Amino acid sequence: MIDTVLFDIGTVLVEFQWQQYLCRMVADPKERQMIDDVMFQSGLWDEVDRGVWTEQEVLDAFFARVPQYREDIQRIYDNIGTSLIKNAYADNWIDEMKARGLRVLFLSNYARYIIDKVPESFTFLEKMDGGVFSCDVHLLKPDPAIYQTCLEQYQLTAERCLFIDDRKDNCEAAQKFGIHTVHFQTFEQAHADAQRLLEQV
């Protein structure tokens, strides 16, 4: 019997609209692509989520790749919170899970810097029973260590947990612990898949 639901946050509960954000912030398509490649496609953003580097170290790594766009990168980083929008269904989905008597936690790659920028996009955290952010434990999904940390911290039984995440590799890593998973693609699909699992297991 499943007694705990673990939610990823990015895409699942909060939409990170980085492409639209970059279009608003940078008019020139060539410059926009170069900044996108450095900030969001190079793997450097993982260090923001890991929470080991200081903000200045992260920025310096961006600047080193495209020094000609230093001012724009700083501006994009400073206002990144405007790219995050809480999904309309987030609170209701959490309420629904809790109404079933389930424990509701988060397990997400996120940076404290981002969370603090737009607290209004993370108000659902108040409804949850805790969870693990990558920035707090300096580990990133799909590293097995972050799943083990969550299981141990909250004294969870893997086989009694349901994990909902938009990345297949994160789901596969959870499955190796015996955790039930739903690969989120749309809310309608994930909600239906979660319902079926909760009724079957």
Automatic annotation (TrEMBL):
<dbReference type="Pfam" id="PF00702">
    <property type="entry name" value="Hydrolase"/>
</dbReference>
<dbReference type="InterPro" id="IPR006439">
    <property type="entry name" value="HAD-SF_hydro_IA"/>
</dbReference>
<protein>
    <submittedName>
        <fullName>HAD family phosphatase</fullName>
    </submittedName>
</protein>
